[in-house]
Structures are given as C-alpha cells and as structure tokens.
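Students often ask why inverse folding is considered easier than folding. One informal answer: many sequences map to the same fold, so there is more than one right answer. In these notes we will look at a single instance of the problem. The structure comes first.
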C-alpha cells in the first residue's frame, strides 16, 4: 500500500510530515515520505495553476483553496483571507504519475465544499 496526503496549508502539511517522522515504518528517512506514506503540499484541480490557500478562523481543517481572482470574495469573518498562502495546484493524474509507482486501490478526497 501507499498513502499520499494532499495538504495545501503549510502548517497542516508540516504537522502531517512530523507525524510521519514518528512512524518510521511508513516514512522514508528524510521525513518527506515516499516510503509508504507522504505529504504533498499542493491542491488538486481540473487544470494546473497557481492558487491561494486561506485558513479557517476557528478550524484549520476548514481551509479553502482559491484562485487569485476569487480572493476578493473570501469571507474575512470565517477565514484568514489577509494571510492567504500561495500554493501550487495540479491534476490528480499529474501527481499520480510523479509519485505513485503502482495502481491506486483506494482514493478518498475531502473537497472542502468544492464538490462538483
């Protein structure tokens, strides 16, 4: 098996990588993963482009990835819009080609309100 976590928010990606380092059988010696598990600090989208991630005010798990043209619509009362972090966005196919050596058995996606 192989676990690949997508976490565009830097602070959450760092926490996930720290957790991997504590679970040696899963992670490669660098702590980045790619042994059995890894963390990719990207968002996923239909078309690769540059976006911004905004953290939820009361819940970092409620962070949103927004294209630059939608940052003006960001709700300051629910998200830290003024602290938006740039983040790369790729297609799932691109990421799987780069990081996954074998077939995917299970795919779970938390789209945080961006479902089709």
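Output (designed amino acids):
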């Amino acid at each position: 098996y192989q676990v690949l976590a997508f976490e565009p928010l830097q602070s959450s990606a760092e926490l996930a990588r720290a957790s991997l380092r504590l679970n040696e059988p899963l992670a490669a010696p660098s702590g980045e993963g790619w042994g059995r598990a890894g963390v990719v600090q990207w968002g996923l989208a239909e078309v690769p482009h540059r976006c911004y991630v905004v953290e939820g005010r009361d819940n970092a798990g409620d962070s949103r990835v927004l294209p630059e043209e939608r940052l003006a619509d960001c709700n300051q009362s629910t998200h830290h819009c003024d602290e938006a972090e740039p983040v790369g966005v790729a297609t799932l196919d691109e990421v799987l080609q780069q990081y996954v050596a074998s077939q995917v058995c299970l795919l779970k996606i938390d789209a945080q309100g961006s479902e089709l």
